Fold this sequence. Notes:
It is a single chain. By secondary structure, the protein is of the alpha+beta class. Helix content is 53%, strand content 16%. It has an 8-stranded mixed β-sheet. A 7-stranded mixed β-sheet has the order 17-16-15-14-13-12-26. The protein has a 5-stranded mixed β-barrel with strand order 1-3-4-8-5. The chain starts with a helix and ends with a strand.
Amino acid sequence: MKRYALYFSGAFLAGVACVLFAPGAFALLTRYWGLALAAGAILSVLSLRRRWFALLAVLLGIAIGAGYTGIYSARLVRPLTALDGRTRTVTAVVRAYPDVYEDSQRVELLVDAAESGIPYPFRRFRTIGYLPLTEQPLTPGDTIRAQMSFYVPTVRQGFDRQRYQMGNGNFISCSYVRAEDETRSPVLFEVTHRETLPLRYQPLHWARQWGERVMTELPAREGGFLRAMLLGDKQSLDPVDEQNLKKVGLSHIIAVSGMHLMFLVGLSSQLFSRRIGVPLSIGIVLLFIPMAGCSPSILRAGIMTLLSCAAFLFDEIADSETSLGLALLLLLLWNPYALYSLSLQLSFLSTFGILRFARPVETAVFGWLYQRLPGKRTRSLARLFGATFSCSACAVLMTAPVLVTAFGYLTILSIPANLLTFSVVGLVFELGVFLCLLPFLRVLLAPVLTVLIRHILGCAAVLSRLHWGVLYWEEPAGKIAVLALSMLIVVLVLSKWSKPKFTVPVLCMILTASVWTAYADRRDTTFITLHAVGEGQMITVADGYDTLSLIDCGSSARQDSLCLLQEYMNWNGFERLDTVIFTAVDKAHARAAGELLRTVPVGHVILPNHVKESDTLTELQSAAQERMIPLTVWTQDGEVPVTLPGVTASLIGGVDRKLGVRLNGLETDLLILHSMTQKMLDGLLDQIPLRADSVVLSNQFEKEDLFARAMEEIEPQTIYISSGYETATRLLGIPVRNTAGSGDLVIKIKHN
C-alpha cells in the first residue's frame, strides 16, 4: 500500500500541475477523465496483477488532483481575484509582525469576510496589506479597520509576485486608500491594539525574541547569518553573504527545512535518549514550524518528521519516500497553489533526489574505496565524505530544471562547499539553539559561534570567486555542461547497465571542456546591463571578469542602487570601478553617489558641465576629495570618444547639467539619453545629428510631437526604458523593453 500511496501522490501532483501550468491539458483531461477512470477500473478488476492497481492509483491521482484544483480555484480563489480594482471597508486581524518602510508598512492580514461585506465560503481569508505607519507598532492579534483597495500583484522586474503570494496562500493583495488632497492621509484607518498577545501568535513572539537575542550577543554579520539559519528570518543577513551562499549552493542553510528539523530531533535524542527524545521532538517540531514562518519547505519537513516520529513510536519502519509523498499530498490539499512556490519545488526535488539516488551514487563512486581503507575511523570519515558528496550531487541534479528555469544558472560549487562546511553547520545550529534558550552561556557560546560562522561565510566567499563554477543556461557551453552533469549522475545511478568504466571518463571530459568553454566565453564578452532601479538609472559595462565601468547610480526612493551594485560586483568578482560617469547629478542619476565613492574603489569620475548646487553634488564632491578620486567636469560639446574597457564609447555634450553616452560594439549601437528632458533632447538634436540602433530614455512622453521628432531623427530599432512603471510594448511602432517588467536588461558584445 505504501507504494500505491506514493504513486497516487505523484499523480495528484501531476493533476494539480495540469490545472496550474497547462490549462489546455486540463481541458482535455476533463473531457476524457471518465473514460480513463473506467478503463483503469476494468483493467484492475480483470487482472489481479499489482501493476494494474498501480495504474489505477495513477489515473485516480491525476483525475482527483485536477478536479480538486479546479474546484478549489472556482470556490476559494476566483471570489478573491474578482475583488481586483475594488475598494472595501475592511476589518482584519494582524497575523504577523509587519515589514516597516519609509512611508508605509507591509503586513499579513486575516480579513473578516462577513463583517467586511465580502462574499466568501469561509468567514475569513488571508491577504497581504500595505498600511500607513502607526505610532505604536502593530503586533500579531491587533485588529484594524480601514478602507482598502484590492489588487492582483503583477510581474515586476522579472519576479511574478502573484504566483509567489498564491504559493503562500494569499490570493489577493490590498493597499490603504489615501485622500486626494495634499495631505494624502488615509481615508479610514483605525487600530485596536491587543493588551496581551494571543496564544496562537506566541511562537512568533518567541522567534522575534530569539532573533533579537542573537543580534545582541553576536557581531552584526554573524548574528544576521545565525538568525537566518535558526528562523529563516533574513532581514539582518548581509546581502553579499546571502549572495555568496546562493552562488555556491549553500542557500539551504538559511532556508529552514528538513535539515534543521533533523538537527532538532537529533539534539533532543542526544539530550534525553531516543525513547524520550522522539516523543518530545513532536512537540518541538509543532512549535518550531510557526516560529520559522510556516513556509512550504518547513511544512514539508515538519510533516515528514512527524510521520517518522510516529513510525518510531508504533515500532514501524518509516518509508521516507512515502512520507515525502504524503507530505506533498497534504500540502497540495491545503493549498494546490503551493506548487507555485519555488521553495516547495526545490525542497521536494532535492529531498527526493537524495532519498532515491544518493545511496546508488555513493556506492558507485566510493564503494571500492570503502573496501580498501584500513581502520574503522578512517572508513567512517570516508563514508561521511562520500555521503555528503553524493547528497550534494543528487540535489544538484534534481533541482537543476527549477534553478535553470527560475534563475537561468546552475552552480556546481555546492559539492565542494558542502564538503567544506558539513561538519560545522549542525554544530552551529545546535549551539545557536543553546544560545537562545540558555543566554547565561553567551560568554562561552558567542566566541565559538562567531568563529564557526566565519568559517562558513569565509568558505562561501572564497568559492564564490571561482567563476567557472556557475553555469548559465543561456550559453551553449552552459547547456552542454548541465546536460553532461545530469548524464553523469544517471550513469552512476544505473552503473549496472551503463558501463561506467567507459561512459564516466567521457562525460567527465565533456563536463570539464564545457565548463572551461563557458568560462572562457564569458571572459571574452562585454556585458552592458541596464539595472532595474525604479525611476532612476544605473548601467554597468563589464569587460569579462577584468574591468567594470558605471554609468549613473540613481534609483527610486524605495530601492538601494548601491546595494544592487555591490551585489552585482560581488557576483561577478569585481572589486573596483574603472570609470564612473554621471549623466546628471540628481536623485534619479546620483542618489547613492557620495556613499558609492566612499564604499567602492573608483578610478575616475566624470560629471556634466554647469551642474546646479545641491546636497547631492556637495556630497559627491566631498566624497571624491576624501578618497582622492580624480573628478572631471565635461565641458566639450558634440560627441567625443572616451575610454571604457571592453566597448567603444563616446560622451555627448552640449546640454547644461546633462550628458549623453554612446556605447558601440560589433552589433551594438546604444545611445543613452535617459537624463534629458524632451525639450533638452530636442535642443540637442538641433545641434548634433544622432543615429543609433537602440536608445535608452526616461519614461517622459508628455509632448508627443517632440517625442515623434526625436524618434524620427534617431531612428532606433529598440527603445529601452529604465522605469518603475509599466509602459506599452511599442511606441510609434518601435519595440520597447522595460526593466519594470523584465528586470535587468543585458546586452552582450562578443569579442573575437
